[in-house]
Amino acid sequence: MCGIAAYYSRNEENAAASVVTELYAQQHRGQESGGIAASNGREITVRKAMGYIKEGISGEDLKRLSGRLAIGHVRYPTRGTSDLAMTQPYVIETLSGPIYAIASNGDIVNYEEVAGELRVKGVHFSSKNDGELLGRFIVYYHEREGMEIADAIRLLMRRIKGAYSAVFIARDHLYIFRDGWGFRPLTIGQTADGDVAAASESCAMDLMRCENMREVEPGEVVVVTPSKTYFLSAEDGLIKPVFPIRRHCVFELIYFARPDSSQFGEYVYDVRHKIGARLAAYDEFDADVVVPVPDSANFIAMGYASAKGIPFNMGLIRNHYVGRTFIRPDQNSRDEGVRQKFNPLKDFFNNKRVVLVDDSIVRGTTIRKLVRMVKAVGAREVYLRIGSPPVTHSCYYGIDTPDKETLIANLMNVDEICAYIGADSLKYLTIDDLAKCVKQSDRFCYACFNGNYPLPRTAEQRGSAC
Asked: Which domains are present in the chain?
């Protein structure tokens, strides 16, 4: 999933400081590592670090990252090793020096095919990260084939299949682009001073006090120069890509995005509240309290409680310094994170019938521990309600579900899952009701729930996303 950011300042040489602020707002999208690349128009300076941006990028780093143009990235590794070599942004070295850099969010499904073609042409790769592939593709066709960068990006859109929202530096130009399906989010805006900002989520743009914010259209290329900003639609340019209907990731709205963000024409808070109300319609009983698994299920649970007229309470307290356990790179660290992350309120659950609301069940290990925890501190009954359909299929566009064998809903039916988890009852949201919670349901991808993939799903072809 990851998070990307870009900032082009018209008057100041401190664009990197603005990118840091954008990345702070998107730290939930990736906590494994992060980085910033800044351009002064002649060369690019980069700083990468493991862990949180606030810990890895210092004030001294920002002094060295001078320039009016900067991009940044926070990494959530769907695949690949957890080390600095896999961290973005990627700087593409050429004979002219370090004048190109890229940061991307997504997952390429024909990585090996395209990378193999470039290797035959003499292009060297330092990693198997999708972002590097995008950057080297653009630079090869610009430097070696003489294409304008915008047209190299157009060619990329025709040749590379998968999910990608990206920001690309070329000396003093910034290129912002998004795949034609629109899988992953990307927002652009302008400040009152004329600065241009872009980020994966609109909440980051709010901190920049951006005006005229909108989503980058699928297949669109935005070019920001020292004097002007160009918006090239999917039908402009010498190489015109042909795109099918959009397929936005609905899991962004259910789980990944911050509730104060707007994505895919939807306000995330509103969608989650609607999901909760839909779930409430499935039940005729009255419980004593509705409790969310914080934080992404908070507003789903609020929607449920409001619709049913049942008290809502934060009975589970989350330690926000542990991070999001779902995006940890291995099962052992996820299990340890659950123990460190949640603590029940003392004496709160005693003899209560609890509706416990979560956004999804992927592997089932986290919610099993939580149900046992709630019962251990006195809950009489736990009714588990899930704000999404069963996750039965792998995602090939940026979410960490690469193997169906790891998905509990692919291995068990609902009754078996309920027994395994230890809940007194379990209900999921249906796909039909999920579709009713968004305005244009035919524009979303539901492949992780129904297996209807918009693009070929050859796992062997994929690189290491983000």
From this structure: 3-243 (3.60.20.10), 252-461 (3.40.50.2020)
Locate 134 and state its tokens: 């995008």
For the sheet with 229-232, list strands across it: 90-94, 97-108, 162-170, 173-178, 221-224, 229-232
Q: Does the annotation count 210 as an active-site position?
A: no
Distance, in Å, from the CA atom of 309 to the CA atom of 289, rounded to the nearest integer, reads 10
- What is Dmax (Cα atoms) for the chain? 72
Q: What's the predicted TM-score (pTM) here?
A: 0.91
SS3 40: coil
In the set 2, 203, 437, 445, the catalytic residue is 2
Q: Are 274 and 304 in contact (CB under 8 A)?
A: no
Tokens 């050429």, residue located: 94
Tens digit of each residue's pLDDT, the chain (466 residues):
699 999 999 999 999 999 999 999 999 999 999 999 999 999 999 999 999 999 999 999 999 999 999 999 999 865 556 678 789 999 998 888 889 999 999 999 999 999 999 999 999 999 888 999 999 999 999 999 999 999 999 999 999 999 999 999 999 999 999 999 999 999 999 999 999 999 999 999 999 999 889 999 999 999 999 999 999 987 777 777 777 789 999 999 999 999 999 999 999 999 999 999 999 999 998 899 999 999 999 999 999 999 999 999 999 999 877 755 554 445 455 555 676 889 999 999 999 999 999 999 999 999 999 999 999 999 999 999 999 999 999 998 988 775 888 899 999 999 999 999 999 999 999 999 999 999 999 999 999 999 999 987 654 455 555 5
- The answer to whether 383 and 364 are in contact (CB under 8 A) is no
Q: How far are the Cα atoms of 287, 372, 385, 424 from residue 376, in angstroms, in the given order?
A: 18, 6, 19, 14
HSE (CB half, 13 Å, CA atoms) of 391? 25
The dihedral sign for the CA sequence 97, 100, 106, 108: negative
Cβ–Cβ < 8 Å for 277, 254? no
Evaluate whether 417 touches 409 at the Cβ level (below 8 Å). yes
Do residues 428 and 389 touch, judged by C-beta distance below 8 A?
Answer: yes
3-class secondary structure, 91: strand
Ramachandran assignment for 36, one of left (phi > 0), alpha (psi -120 to 50 degrees), beta (any other): beta
Q: Is the peptide bond before 295 cis (omega within 30 degrees of 0)?
A: yes
